[in-house]
Each structure stands twice: as C-alpha cells, then as structure tokens.
Design goal:
Keywords: Cobalamin biosynthesis, Glutamine amidotransferase. GO terms for molecular function: ABC-type vitamin B12 transporter activity; catalytic activity. Belongs to the CobB/CobQ family. CobQ subfamily. It comes from Anaerotalea alkaliphila. The structure is a single chain. The chain is 32% helix and 30% strand. The protein has two domains: 255 residues, P-loop containing nucleotide triphosphate hydrolases (Rossmann fold, 3-Layer(aba) Sandwich), CATH 3.40.50; 209 residues, Rossmann fold (3-Layer(aba) Sandwich), CATH 3.40.50. The chain is globular. The protein is of the alpha/beta class and 501 residues long. The protein has a six-stranded parallel β-sheet, sandwiched between helices. It has a six-stranded mixed β-sheet with strand order 15-13-16-18-26-25.
C-alpha cells in the first residue's frame, strides 16, 4: 500500500495544485514512485490521455512533475462548467452528461465507488500518493457527502496539509477559521499548515506563526515565498490572464472568452522574450496586435454571442480585412466559419451565423471527439508559409464536426487512438483554423510563427530560443521543487507520511 498525504486549501487558488506538483517532484527526486490524485476537479483546461480519455490539466502537470505518464485514474471526475449553474460531468474520462449544480449535488455520492477504484489502482502501483483537494474544506454547505476534501481524506485515510494564501491577506484568520469549522475528527487529520505566496522577511511573520500553532494546535510546516514559476495553469483564475500590455517586439492577442478552455495552448509563446501574449476581454483592449487568436471554449455558441455583443467580432473582422493574422483553435476555429448548427441542444440549441472568415459549417453532435494526434502541416501559403512540412503533436477535444466548403486544409493528422488519418483545419489567406490543441507546442513551430510575425514587421530576426518546450517545463518543475524543499520542513512532511492519521 502507498503512503498518502492530502493538500487542502483555505480557498480556491491558494496554491494547492502547484504545491502538490512540488511534492510530486521532490518525492521523485528522493527516489520514490509517486502519483498525484484529485477525486473531483472543476476546470475548463483539460487533457486527452493516450487512451483517448479526458482528465484535468492540473493532474497532468503533477504527473509530469512526478515523471510518469498522465492517467485518467489520477482524476476520475472532471466537471467542465457549461453555464453559471451547470457542468458537463466526465467520469473516468468519458462524458456522463450535463447536470445542474443541484442535480450533481444530489448525484455525486453515487460516484464514490469510481473514486475508490481509481485511487486503489494508484495505491497498488506507487509508493506515495499526493492527493489534492478542491476549494476549501470549510464550505459547510457542501460538506454533506463530500468526495473531494475531508470526505476524500477519510476515504483514503490520508493526513492533511492546509495551504493558506498570504498574498490575499487575512491568512491567519482563514487558516484558523478553516480548521475551526471542521469537525473534531477532521481536525485530528489536519497535521500541518503552510503559508503560501509570502513576500518579505519570515522573521517578521514568526510571531504570527507561533500564535497560529498555539490557537490551532497544528504545526506550521513552512512558509513558501511568492514564486515566478512558469507552469501550466488549471483555470481562468490564472495570473497570466491579467496581462494587458505590450512588452515584446511581437504582440499576440488572445481573446479571453467567458468559457475559455485549454489556454495552455499559448504558454509556449510566453517563454519567447520577443513576444507579448495579452488576454483581451473587450474592443478597447484589442489595439493593433500582430496576431489574433480565438482560443478553445466550452460553449462556442454562447461565447460567439458574447463576442458579437461586445463589439469584438466586428473589430476582428476589420483587422482580418487589413491583413492581421487570425488563428482559431477548436471552438475558435468553429466560430470563424459561416454557420454553427446545434440541432440536439448539445450547447445552447438552434442555429447561428459564424464570423464568416472561413467558408465552413459546424454541426454539434452529442458524441465528443477525444484523441491524441500527430500531424504534419501542408504546403501553407501566406504569413505562416514557413510552417509547411513541419511536424507537430497534440490532441483533439470537441463536440462538433466542421465541413469546409472553400479553402485549403492546414494539416494531415493521424489519430493515435484509432490509427485513422485525415485532414484538419482550414486556411483562407491570413485566416487559419485547427481543431488541434498543442499545435504550437513544438519549439520549431512556435519559433517559426514568431519569426514570421517579426519578418512581416520588417524586424531583423536573430536566433530565437531552441530549447524544447519539454526541457523548459522540466527546468520549471525542478525550480518549483527546489524552492518548496528549501521553504518547508521536509522532515516533518516525511514524518506525517509515515505516521498517517
């Protein structure tokens, strides 16, 4: 049986996912077989495994940090919000259906066998399991039949570390309040606290650390400084979404759709010093970018309506007519077409005109496409002609099928799950679209896109970074682990692991 430890937080975005990734890398460095686990995740950033199953992006990051292949058993339940009060429910990597919040609240206890089957698979194959909670364990209105915080800790018999975010302020009140709202048996499972995102001198913080230990009777395991670590984010609370300013020679504007998903597609550009990646919410922010990206979305039709109502659609069409490069990924690709048809109410129902920059129609079906792919760009014309013949890999995850009426396919792709070859995407002039998430991740592809944009502006192109994105991420995981190792009492962490609850 594996040893386990659970990471909970006083709030969403307290740093649970990153701290879990850090422990996964530290335990790996120390010679252990370690795996992450999150029973239920709510996020629009997801990933397709080699088996064609869907899981949360955070557990993929944690698996990478642990040096293992992502597996859907690491995240058996994924909730993908489709509205403010409803989500698509994905169990064991496959769509179960859409549920309202109240429907899911009544249903979730039925998923405990799925959770424990997934957890037990890891329990049989690893030395250590690092479990991540969700939100806060002190949401007293949600504690009935809890399956992701203290309910999960009890199912796994796992000791708990509580993460508090000092950057938001009120960290001692949130740590104390969280622990005090737990039941007595739950408080006994709380074995340590960690203060996260600290800026300043720990000496000044020390009196507060002693007091919170006395008040809660729980040891402070460490104080982790605020870190500038570039690791894939789980959801749209990401601080990278706040970037509004041009700081590089090349300006890429990503439209921040209300239901934006898989925005990790564009992280590769952020590591290139010559590039600014901005997330744009309205027409005033768009300015004069060198490239406009329409990203993936969990609800293409409603997000297109939002784009239309706030004036961004008209502005995108204006830029496109002036020659600005426009690239749509997945839902963004669907938006660029002529018609979106949802006869079965997969999203919002009904039929809607697209942006009409690509002559293609999309029909939504209930079956979701989920697969990893490899691909090769065709002989592309225009600004991105340098991509011609290059290879890439990624994954598809969407509910619609797009039929092209005019234009050239962007690439030939091989479905690595079904071993079926087909064409993907469409190009008409300076407008490009593709269903492939991760199409830019290969360093050669990302660098070529940036060089093309620089040359179009008459900027001399020096050597851009040739480090692979995979190597770059490995360095970030090591940097994360090094910082956390120096900041927390790892002897205490190992003691907690050994003693359990």
């Amino acid at each position: 049986m594996a040893k386990s430890i659970m990471i909970q937080g006083t709030t969403s975005n307290a740093g649970k996912s990153l701290f879990t990734a850090a422990l996964c890398r530290i335990f790996k460095q120390d010679g252990y077989r370690v795996a992450p686990f999150k029973s239920q995740n709510m996020a629009l950033n997801s990933y397709i495994t080699k088996e064609g199953l869907e899981m949360g992006r955070a557990q993929v990051v944690q698996a990478e940090a642990a040096g293992i292949e992502p597996d859907v058993v690491m995240n058996p339940i994924l909730l993908k919000p489709t509205s403010d009060c409803g989500s698509q429910v994905i169990v064991n990597g496959e769509v179960l259906g859409n549920m309202s919040a109240s429907e899911y609240f009544q249903f979730k206890h039925k998923l405990k066998p799925d959770i424990m089957k997934a957890y037990n698979h890891l329990d049989e194959n690893y030395d250590i399991i690092v479990i991540e909670g969700a939100g806060s364990p002190a949401e007293i209105n949600l504690k009935a039949d809890d399956i992701v915080n203290m309910g999960m800790a009890k199912m796994a018999n796992a000791p708990v570390l509580l993460i508090g975010d000092i950057d938001r302020g009120g960290v001692f009140a949130s740590v104390y309040g969280t622990i005090m709202l737990l039941t007595e048996d739950e408080r006994k499972m709380m074995k340590g606290t960690v203060i996260n995102k600290f800026r300043g001198s720990v000496d000044i913080l020390a009196p507060g650390l002693r007091m919170i230990e006395e008040l809660t009777n729980v040891s402070v395991a460490g104080v982790v400084p605020y870190m500038n670590i570039d690791i894939d984010d789980e959801d749209s609370l990401s601080e990278r979404m706040l970037s509004k300013y041009k700081t590089g020679l090349v300006d890429i504007a990503v439209i921040r759709l209300p239901k934006i998903s898989n925005f990790t597609d564009f992280n590769v550009f952020e590591r290139i010093p010559e590039v600014s990646v901005r997330y744009v919410c309205n027409s005033e922010e768009l300015d004069q970018p060198d490239m406009i990206i329409l990203p993936g979305t969990k609800n293409t039709i409603s997000d297109l309506l939002w784009l239309r109502q706030n004036g961004l659609e008209a502005l995108i069409k204006k830029h496109a007519a002036a020659g600005t490069l426009v690239f749509g990924i997945c839902g963004g690709y669907q938006m660029l077409g002529t018609v979106l048809d949802d006869p079965d109410g997969v999203e919002c129902g009904g039929k809607m005109n697209g942006i009409n920059l690509i002559e293609a129609d999309t029909v939504f079906y209930k079956d979701k496409v989920r697969t990893q792919i490899t691909g090769k760009f065709h002989a592309i014309h225009g600004a991105l002609s340098g991509l011609s013949g290059m290879e890439f890999s990624g994954y598809e995850i969407h509910m619609g099928k797009t039929t092209i009426h005019a234009g050239a396919p962007v690439a030939t792709i091989l479905d690595t799950v079904e071993q079926a070859e087909s064409t993907d995407g469409c190009q008409i002039g300076n407008i490009y679209g593709s269903y492939v998430h991760g199409i830019f991740d290969a360093s050669e592809v990302a660098n070529t896109v940036v060089k093309s944009l620089m040359e179009a502006k008459g900027i001399a192109v020096d050597n851009l970074t040739h480090e692979t994105y995979g190597d770059y991420k490995e360095k970030q995981y090591d940097a994360l682990a090094d910082t956390v190792r120096k900041s927390v009492n790892m002897d205490l962490i190992y003691k907690i692991l050994e003693e359990g609850v």
